[in-house]
Structure formats: structure tokens, C-alpha cells
């Protein structure tokens, strides 16, 4: 996945799950691969299964939303109505990200939560990586390629992080042909 070899990553996840089928609900990572492969129904189903083992994860709700928007017959309004409710994800800026995708929040609220004092330390860099990744994905769902690219570039290049979602921002940039500004 980190090499942006999406089909191969799905093959690898499938091989693992064939050996350990009880692990299927835990593999939200396969859901990301399905999203990037354009297999939105499979991604949506993967995130629904993941919800059974991780009930308070905004990221799971958001990726489910992203797949629901692009799945056959999907649209923004239906995805907003079907947004998985999350009440207890205390990670910064996940509450604001969930509110945004649910139509109750704003871009400014996500950014303010990620960096409330304007001084950027290492934890703020991490929060800004997440904020810009999810803002980029939000604008991609809205069909605004320019704003999506702006935020993905910030997540991938300005605030890069060496964890799964930080690397996902970099994979997203690579798959969308975005380069460092």
C-alpha cells in the first residue's frame, strides 16, 4: 500500500484474511485499499465490519462515508444521513472532522482544533497532518479537486508523519499525481 500498489495490497490483505478469517473485521486498512482501487461497495462493507470491533473511530466513519459517496447510487446527502455516529473519539481533531462530514462543522473548526494557538510543535504537526488529510478527502468527496489537492499536499509534504495515515496522505498524493509545491 505504501508503494501505491493498490491491487497488490488488496491481494496481500486477502491472502492474510484467507489464513485468519476471524481477523477480517479488524482490517480497516483493506478498506482504504478498496477506496483507492475504486471498489467502493467493498470498502463500505469493510468499514461496516470494522465498526463491529471498533465502535468509536471517526476515521472509520469517514472512510465509510467516502466509499458511500462514490458507491453506485451514492451521493453526499445520503452519505451524510448514513454517517456512522461516533461519540467518544477524543483524538484531535476527530470530533471536528466528524462534524464536518456530517454537515454540522466547518473547515475552520477542524483547523482551529488541530492548531489552536498557531504555534506548531510535533503534536500539532501530527494533528495538522490528520486535519489536512481529512480536509483533502472531504473536498475530494465534494468534487473540488483544487481544494482537495491543496490540503493533501499540506498533509503529505508540509506536515508529513511516519504513521499509517501520514503515509496514506503520501499515497493519496502519489495516486492523484500531486507533487511537493
Features:
181 residues; mainly alpha
Question: What's the short story on this structure?
Answer:
With 181 residues, the protein is mainly alpha-helical. Helix content is 65%, strand content 0%.
Can you characterise this structure?
By secondary structure, this protein is mostly helical. Helices cover 65% and strands 0% of the residues. It is built from ten helices and no strands. The chain has helices at residues 6-19, 28-37, 40-51, 58-70, 76-81, 94-101, 107-114, 122-142, 145-158, 164-175. 38% of the residues are buried. The mean pLDDT is 97.
Number of helices: 10
The low-confidence runs, each spanning 5 or more residues with pLDDT under 50, are none
Span of the ends, CA to CA: 23 Å
Largest sheet: none
Rounded Rg: 16 Å
Shape type? globular
Roughly how much helix do the residues carry, as a percent range? 55-70%
What letter string, H or E per element, gives the SSE order?
HHHHHHHHHH
Strand content: under 5%
Mean pLDDT, to the nearest integer, reads 97
Strand tally, please? 0
Q: Give the structural class.
A: mainly alpha
Please write out the topology.
Layout: H1 6-19, H2 28-37, H3 40-51, H4 58-70, H5 76-81, H6 94-101, H7 107-114, H8 122-142, H9 145-158, H10 164-175
